[in-house]
Design a protein that fits this description.
Blueprint lengths: L5 E10 L2 E11 L4 E5 L6 H9 L6 E6 L2 E2 L5 H4 L1 E4 L11 H6 L11 H14 L15 H13 L5 E5 L7 H18 L3 E5 L2 H7 L2 E6 L2 E6 L1 H6 L4 H4 L8 E8 L2 E4 L4 E4 L7 E6 L4 E2 L7 E8 L3 E8 L2 E8 L9 E2 L2 E2 L5 E4 L4
Parallel strand pairs: 3-8, 3-9, 6-7, 7-8
Antiparallel strand pairs: 1-2, 1-4, 4-5, 9-10, 11-12, 11-14, 12-13, 14-21, 15-20, 16-17, 16-19, 17-18
């Protein structure tokens, strides 16, 4: 296993009586894109600012390339931080915005080197034709490309991305998502990418760290986090619609919900009172024994999302677009027993 480039060990950050980070530990490999996923208030931005040196932790250490940088300034750490609000100088041209970090005190780059780096970044990000345009005349997508370009011209040791695609429309987010992944692979520079968007997390990350209330809840591959979440809180972070959660009891060889519905067969081992999670795509609308009533159908194009009343429990099911199912219909849901997830009841 490769030695991590970035190692954060038991970092705690407080703002007065508020603890934003609680003994956070994580690492990032030298050629890895780590996604930090969590809701608003989870501590994601504070984590990035602490890595960058803009905030000082009360406890813990931060290492880069094996060196302790906890007390070093942002300039000494040599990281690039990209925000969601672009932060460009509106009256400057794209070229001048890209040149700005290269002309910082201490850089001492020649004019030829500056021009070469700007041209390289502009070609890479497909903004070469915009170099002489003022930033205030750019679209949102173009501004974000310039913001990313301003980061990569520096050729930093690590990229820190703070929800950089949030302010863009869905189609543009999808396109730039792909481009960012390809860009990072080409540059071979480690990246920490913060987001609350589950699609970004699943599609971009080599690994995902799930953050909640300033704590690391789980770290793993996208598949690990999606299929083997350690708690219902983590499970709810990924999946659209969200995972179905039911309190169940072991009875007659089955997991039986509070409403009396036998949800799935119960194997040996584990407790008798559990929380059962099953994702909507792992329930077939037909094939089960207990009937349910369809209360809502959402046509999503390639699929239909069904909200069903299953013995008094509201459950989401993802069905094929071709399924002949309508609001008010009676169906017989069947859960894939290989896809259920069980947690002790106290973890909900």
């Amino acid at each position: 296993m490769q030695k991590p480039f970035l190692a954060i060990d038991r970092v705690t950050k407080k703002f007065g009586s508020v603890t934003a980070l609680r003994s956070v530990s994580l690492n990032v490999g030298p050629d890895e894109l780590l996604v930090v996923l969590g809701p608003t208030g989870a501590g994601k931005t504070t984590l990035l600012r602490t890595i960058a040196g803009l905030e000082a932790p009360q406890e813990g250490t931060i290492q880069m390339a094996g060196e302790d940088v906890t007390s070093r300034t942002p300039a000494e750490r040599d990281v690039a931080l990209v925000f969601q609000d672009f932060s460009l100088y509106p009256n400057w041209t794209v070229r001048r915005n890209l040149e700005f970090p290269l002309r910082a005190p201490g850089r001492r780059l020649s004019e030829d080197e500056i021009a070469q780096r700007v041209s390289w970044a502009a070609e890479l990000l497909k903004i070469a034709g915009l170099l002489d345009r003022r930033s205030q005349r750019l679209s949102g997508g173009e501004m974000q490309r310039v913001a990313i370009g301003r980061a990569i011209v520096r050729r930093p040791r690590v990229f820190l991305m703070d929800e950089p695609l949030t302010n863009l429309d869905a189609k543009l987010r999808e396109a730039l998502r792909v481009e960012l992944v390809c860009l990072r692979r080409e540059l071979k520079t480690p990246m920490v990418y913060v987001t609350h968007d589950q699609v970004e997390a699943l599609s971009m990350g080599d690994r995902i760290v799930v953050l909640g209330e300033g704590r690391v809840l789980q770290t793993g591959s996208p598949e690990d986090i999606f299929r083997r979440p350690v708690s219902p809180v983590v499970a709810r972070q990924l999946g659209q619609p969200a995972i179905n959660l039911l309190k169940v009891e072991r009875s007659g060889g089955a997991w039986v919900a509070d409403n009396g519905v036998a949800v799935a067969a119960a194997g040996e081992g584990g407790g008798n009172s559990m929380i059962l999670g099953v994702r909507p795509e792992d329930i077939q609308p037909r094939g089960g024994e207990r009937e349910a009533r369809v209360t809502l159908v959402e046509d999503m194009g390639p699929t239909k999302i069904l909200l069903v009343d299953w013995g008094g429990c509201n459950v989401h099911i993802v069905a094929p677009a071709t399924a002949d199912i309508h609001q008010g219909d009676t169906i017989h849901p069947q859960v894939d027993p290989e896809r259920i997830i069980l947690w002790p009841e106290q973890t909900i």
